Amino acid sequence: MRYSLLDLAPIPEGADAAQAMRNSVALARAADALGFHRYWLAEHHNMPGIASSATAVMIGHIAAATTRIRVGAGGIMLPNHAPLVIAEQFGTLAAIHGDRIDLGLGRAPGTDMATARALRRNMSAQDTFPQDVLELLAYLGDPEAGQTLHAIPGEGSKVPVWILGSSLYGAQLAAHLGLPYAFASHFAPDALGEAAEVYRRGFKPSEFLEAPHFMMAMNIFAADDPAEAVRLKTSMQQAFIRLRSGTPSKLPRPVDRIEDVADPRWIKAVDQALRVSATGDAAMVREQVYALIAQYRPDEVMISGQIHDPQARIRSFEIAAEVMQGLAG
Known about the structure:
This protein is of the alpha/beta class and 329 residues long.
């Protein structure tokens, strides 16, 4: 089973965006050596704790710093952009870095509505996501006779396109178009099982994919000491609570007890949202990860985990790689 890594380029408390980007380069180089198949970055805007807003630029930066690993978007929020622009951006990345570039597409704005209006200039109540995906696929494919609009670079690059989602909508669209599908179960797991079934049952083979390919995302917070792993997780818990309560911030420093800094109702809600996670030492993480894989039978796993200390984050992903490599045995 392939295992991949999702990075939001988190900006830790006490650091800035430049340091976050250096942290991401170090993590990507480690992931390249650890056998991770993909390294994806996600588009978010107006978030003080996330440095991957210019996602295509960050993808190019990471791809230039690595040698083997695929690098891509998990994802680009397509409603924020003209399909032609995305085709040109990712066609440029493919022209520079060859067949190492992935393009995951999301339907959500990746931000609040005020920022979405600033990004798009005009807002439409009409859902054009399926049409935008088809338009983008056409730009990345081979040109047709009489075609007047061309993505250069981009045309003929056939950059692999994924549909991302956290509901049945994306599962249905990916199945209909015959595209690979990635589910955002690392923060919105409620429809995970149903979405996987809808996607597999409705999948139509296409020029892009002969059989369904389903990726599930999970968080891993791992350390050599189980108590330290629980402590590391509190950074993401705090960040999620602040985001959900309307006060987003840089990635908080971990605390010894999350109960000392957050209302129990918020802790319960956030732990429910983050329940597709594994926390502990290698043996504990292995047991939790294997149980999740046995339950949902993904074709690939995308691993996330926002951890304040960059070295602790690398160590967590080292343990995750050991667990996933053990799965093959």
